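seq as requested:
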Amino acid sequence: MAGAQKSECKTVANNKKAFHDYFVIESTEAGIELFGTEVKSVRQGRVNLKDAWCSIKDGEIFVNGMHISPYEQGNIFNRDPMRVKRLLMHKREINRLYGLIKQQGYALIPLSAYFKKGRVKVQVGLCKGKKNYDKREDMARKAAARDIQRSLKERQR
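struct tokens:
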């Protein structure tokens, strides 16, 4: 199997709530430090990023609130599903992000988890919180687009 190629990126989980609650300013890719049974559970798609957020402490970046369900055949090797997991990034990138999140209203939010060349990666977004009126504008825009698509579909019949 020397010539066989794996699929480039296989998305495991998306954080839809992050796109609803935040404006994503920029995003970066980070590796994640996991144990064997956690990787097997991620392969089964048993990851929840809904309430996850990232913190920077002592020059390292961590993801909090990311739930990886225990692997069924994992027995004693299973870890706590809600444990704090370390992300793997270059020190320069971490310091740059740390400088940005010190500004008013910025947060680091994991946007998605995926496999890239057999490794679990997390897309981390630098986000700014949305106000309620911003959310209403987005919902109105989506509803208008849905109505337009619906009317175009009816015209084609």
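DSSP finds four helices and nine strands in the chain.
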